[in-house]
Amino acid sequence: MKNFLIRFNAPQVDIGLLFLRVSGAFMLLHVHGWPKIVHYSHELTVIEDPFGLGAQFSLLAAIFAEVVCPVLIAIGLLTRFACLPVLAVLLVSMFIVHPQWSIAEGQFGWLLMVIFGAIAFCGPGKYALGSAIGRKELS
Questions:
Q1: Where are the transmembrane segments (predicted)?
Q2: 66, 36 Cβ separation under 8 angstroms
Q3: Closest by CA position to 27, among listed 92, 105, 109, 130
Q4: Range of the domain at 134
Q5: Burial readout 36-60 (b: 16 or more C-beta within 10 A, e: otherwise)
Q6: How does 105-139 read in b/e, with b if 16+ C-beta sit within 10 Å?
Q7: Are 21 and 73 in contact (CB under 8 A)?
Q8: pLDDT tens string for the chain (139 positions)?
């Protein structure tokens, strides 16, 4: 009976991880990443530069974390690695750029940290490109 329950629940977990990856990646890409690409020139004038590396570097780093990484996460390729820049940008945003925000004001950022933190801990699951090509190190 115990083996049956383990086998029965495994596909649900993999479907849950797929849903978490795709929905989290879509939200990050749609709300933050895509607008940075479409309005690149404007974003250069308004992006925060918390480390003094220049607006262009900060914007390109944000685009990498909010466009490239979500695509990798959604398809399940280099998933855990791709979560790291996302989490880094979110941590910088929440603790350095907007430290005055309450949990309510920064709830989207906190929820994204929960989503991508869970994916980083759990991995992409079975329904991922890295798993499909049979190379665990790509997940």
A1: 12-31, 51-75, 82-101, 107-129
A2: yes
A3: 109
A4: 2-138
A5: beeeeeebeeebeeeeeeeeeebbe
A6: ebeebeebbebbeebbeebbbbbbbbbeeeeeebb
A7: yes
A8: 455 445 556 688 999 999 999 999 999 999 999 999 999 999 999 999 999 999 999 999 999 999 999 999 999 999 999 999 999 999 999 999 999 999 999 999 999 999 999 999 999 999 999 876 765 545 5
